[in-house]
Design goal:
With about 260 residues, the protein is α/β, with parallel strands linked by helices. It is built from eight helices and nine strands. It has a single domain, classed as Rossmann fold (3-Layer(aba) Sandwich). Helix 7 links the parallel strand 4 and strand 5. The chain starts with about 25 loop residues before the first helix and ends with a strand.
Length: about 260
């Protein structure tokens, strides 16, 4: 996840269980990252929204899919990208503070998310912002739990933004989280995942959190084992980095095997 501040990562490889995730400062993260829409976020969101429009066009029952957003944190635009296609969206979040933020944030979609919805629904193609607000409140369900414990083959559409590389320094945990996300989707289900490129770790509310340094080769290699129709694309930071210690973004779209 893109976070304010620079990390001071421990010298030894740090793993997910070592960090105080329930103390994640959700409000600080949200204010720093999503108070207004950045150009890079707009590019990634447009890419994902277009993919979902195309990939769900031939679904047997359109607009009635079950969506999954893994590690949502205080970021609602992945869920918004799925909203036009889903009758329900599960937001799987491990951190208690983030889960509490999500329950409030989905109950009444804040006005600052309007520009993000405009990217998903240009010219009101998927309804206006007020309809999105009502649908999200009705269809979103916050599920506090770990990415590592996801059931397999349960959902029809999925997103995971800035999560698998932002929970550990251990490449094995990055690979396990990425695989668990895709395997949680039914075979053929479209997904989109975004990653901080070459992240060195990050700080939120004075607490340092870990990262695994990954780029296109590592992301492609991990996803090729669980996905088909895979496309991996780098996105340049714009207008300026949110913090030191990362070099860009990588977006992957595809379908679960």
């Amino acid at each position: 996840m893109p976070i304010a501040g620079q990390s001071s990562a421990p010298a030894a490889m740090a793993r997910n269980a070592q960090f105080p995730w329930d103390e994640f400062a959700a409000d600080a993260y949200h204010e720093h990252n999503y108070d207004s829409m950045r150009d890079d976020d707009a590019e990634m969101l447009a890419m994902v929204a277009s993919w979902f429009d195309t990939a769900t066009a031939t679904a047997p029952v359109r607009d009635q899919l079950c969506g999954l957003d893994v590690g949502a944190g205080p970021n609602l635009y992945p869920a918004l990208s799925m909203l036009p296609h889903c009758r329900e969206i599960t937001l799987r979040e491990y951190s208690a503070s983030n889960a509490a933020w999500l329950r409030t944030g989905t109950a009444h979609l804040d006005e600052r998310w309007r520009p993000f919805w405009d990217v998903v629904s240009p010219a009101g193609d998927h309804g206006d912002f007020e309809s999105a607000r009502a649908r999200l409140a009705e269809r979103a369900r916050v599920d506090q739990g770990s990415v590592f414990d996801l059931p397999e083959a349960r959902w029809d559409l999925g997103t995971m933004f800035f999560v698998a590389e932002s929970l550990s320094q251990d490449p094995a945990e990055f690979e396990a989280a990425t695989g668990a996300f895709v395997r949680a989707l039914r075979s053929g289900s479209p997904f989109a995942a975004a990653f901080m490129e070459r992240s060195q770790g990050y700080e939120v509310g004075g607490i340092a959190f870990p990262a695994t340094s990954v780029g296109e080769p590592e992301i492609s290699g991990c996803l090729e084992t669980v996905a088909t129709d895979l496309k991996v694309q780098r996105v340049q930071v714009r207008p300026a980095p949110l913090r030191p210690g990362y070099t860009g973004y990588v977006v992957a779209i595809g379908r679960a095997k």
